[in-house]
UniProtKB/TrEMBL annotation:
Catalytic reaction equation(s): uridine + phosphate = alpha-D-ribose 1-phosphate + uracil
GO CC entries: cytosol
PANTHER family to which the protein is assigned, alphabetical: FI09636P-RELATED (PTHR43691:SF11), URIDINE PHOSPHORYLASE (PTHR43691)
The protein's name in its UniProt record: Uridine phosphorylase
Homology family: Belongs to the PNP/UDP phosphorylase family.
GO biological process: purine nucleoside catabolic process
UniProt keyword annotations, A-Z: Glycosyltransferase, Transferase
Alphabetized Pfam families for the sequence: PNP_UDP_1 (PF01048)
A molecular-function term among this protein's GO annotations: uridine phosphorylase activity
E.C. number: 2.4.2.3
Length: 237
C-alpha cells in the first residue's frame, strides 16, 4: 500500500491512464469503463479500475505539476507493477495552426523544471521522450478512429502563469507545439523504472490567441483523446 495512492496490491491494472484532474479520472471511469471501482480517494486524487473492451485498465489522477505527477508515476510503477501509462491532459497551444479541441501527442518534452538538472547534477540536459511503441500505436489508433492527431515536441512548464511569453515564442520557432505541466517528469520516471509512457493532450487554451475552454470542458470534453488513449493502452503488449 503506497503512501499517496493507498490502494491494496492487485487493485490497479498494469495499464493506466493518467489525467491531471482527478475529476476527469472520475468522468473517464464513469463514462467509458465497465464495472469501475474507486480504489483511492487519498488527498482527493481519485483512482479507478475497470475494463475497456474486456481489458483491465485503471485511470488515476496525477495532479498539477511535475512533483505531483512524479509521485503518482513512481508509486504506480514501483508499488503496483504498472507497465504502461498514458497521460491524458489539457494544454495551451503555441503553434498557430492548432485550435481548441485539437489532439496532440508528445514525442518529446522540453522542460524548464529543475528536476532533471538535479537528477543529473546539472551536467546533462536529459531528453524525456515518449515510448515509441505506444506512440506508434496511438498514431494508428487515431487514424483508425478518424481523429486528426498532431505529433511533435511540447514544453512541460513549472508555471501555468508565466512572465516570459517570449520564451514560448522562441520555442514555437523550434517546432514546439504546446505547453503543459507534467509530461517531462512522467517520461523520465517511466524511463528510469522500465515502464512505457506517452502523453496525449487536447488543446484547451491558445496561448497566442488568448482563447480558453471553460473548466467543465476541461473535465468532461475530451472524449476523442480518451478513446485514443484507451484503445492505445489495451493494444500495448
Ligand atoms: O488538464 P491536466 O491534465 O491537469 O493538464 C494541464 O492542466 C493543468 C493546468 O491547468 C496542468 O496540470 C496542465 O498540465
Ligand atoms: O499547462 C497548461 C495547460 C493547459 N493550458 C495552458 O495554457 N497551460
Amino acid at each position: 500500500m503506497s503512501v499517496h495512492i493507498g490502494a491494496k496490491p492487485g487493485e490497479i491494472a498494469e495499464r493506466v491512464l493518467l489525467p491531471g484532474d482527478p475529476m476527469r479520472a472520475k468522468w473517464i471511469a464513469e463514462t467509458f469503463l465497465e464495472d469501475a471501482v474507486c480504489y483511492t480517494q487519498v488527498r482527493g486524487m481519485l483512482g479507478f479500475t475497470g475494463t475497456w473492451r474486456g481489458q483491465r485498465v485503471s485511470v488515476q489522477g496525477s495532479g498539477m505539476g511535475m512533483p505531483s505527477a512524479s509521485i503518482y508515476t513512481h508509486e504506480l510503477i514501483n508499488e503496483y507493477g504498472v507497465r504502461s501509462v498514458i497521460r491524458i491532459g489539457s494544454c495551451g497551444a503555441l503553434a498557430l495552426d492548432l485550435n481548441l479541441g485539437d489532439v496532440v501527442a508528445a514525442i518529446g518534452s522540453a522542460t524548464d523544471s529543475n528536476m532533471n538538472r538535479a537528477r543529473f547534477d546539472g551536467l546533462i540536459d536529459y531528453a524525456p521522450v515518449a515510448d515509441f511503441g505506444l506512440l506508434r500505436t496511438a498514431v494508428d489508433t487515431a487514424a483508425a478512429q478518424g481523429v486528426p492527431m498532431r505529433v511533435g515536441p511540447i514544453l512541460a512548464a513549472d508555471a501555468f502563469y508565466t512572465d516570459r511569453p517570449d520564451l514560448y515564442d522562441a520555442l514555437a520557432l523550434y517546432g514546439v507545439l504546446a505547453v503543459e505541466m507534467e509530461s517531462a517528469a512522467i517520461y523520465t520516471v517511466a524511463a528510469r523504472y522500465g515502464a512505457k509512457a506517452l502523453t496525449i493532450l487536447t488543446v484547451s487554451d491558445h496561448i497566442k490567441r488568448g482563447e480558453a475552454m471553460e473548466s467543465a470542458q476541461r473535465e468532461q470534453g475530451f472524449s476523442n483523446m480518451v478513446k485514443i488513449g484507451l484503445d492505445t493502452i489495451i493494444a500495448d503488449a
